[in-house]
Amino acid sequence: MNEITLQVNGTPHKVAVDDTTLLLDALRRRLGITSTREGCGVGHCGACTVLAAGKSVSSCLSLAVHYEGVALTTADGLPEDDPVVSSFVDSDAMQCGYCIPGFVLMIKELLAENPAPSDKEICDHLKGNKCRCATYPEIIKAIRLAAKRSAL
Questions:
Q1: Whose CA is closest to 44, among 67, 61, 21?
Q2: pLDDT, tens digit, for every residue of 32-65?
């Protein structure tokens, strides 16, 4: 076991990991961050998404040791009044809510790169995110609202 420091939501955390510990397991099991979730375990559903230095990462496929000292953002680290978070709430863009943290972080990434994405650009960016409850119309509505709020 090695001790590394993970910078999660602006706070450094010492974590004991081995060379095969997944970032998902370090976050959930060692740090208790529950918004990062395992959905498929193979990087196809987006439930495990975190932002590493602002870029989306499938934490179920990523080794924790590669993220020592990298600024990691999870949905737990976003304030309630964040434009993306509040837009998802105001648009009723969730049913069971399992996938929403991954969608929120993907939209944070998208809007940072492209503040006014087209519907095609939104869909292309979210290809790796799955919502089993099929709340896609509400999710798209939330993204459009978040883009408007972020532009203010």
A1: 61
A2: 999 999 999 999 999 999 999 999 999 999 999 9
- The residues near 106 (Cβ < 8 Å, ≥ 6 apart) are 46, 49, 56, 125, 126, 128, 129
Domain span holding position 55 = 2-77
In sequence order, the 6+-apart residues with CB closer than 8 A to the CB of 95 are 133, 135
CB of 138 within 8 A of CB of 93?
yes
* Domain match, 116 and 94 both: yes
Tell me which H or E stretch contains 58.
strand 55-58
Mark whether 19 and 71 lie in a shared domain.
yes
Q: List the Cα angle 119/127/102 in 5-degree steps.
A: 100
Q: Please determine, for residue 94, whether its predicted confidence score (pLDDT) is greater than 90.
A: no
What is the DSSP secondary-structure string of 74-111?
-GGGS-TT-HHHHHHHHTT--SS-SSHHHHHHHHHHHH
Instruction: Tell the residue number behind the tokens 């919502």, with chain if given.
Output: 131
**AA identity, residue 20:** T
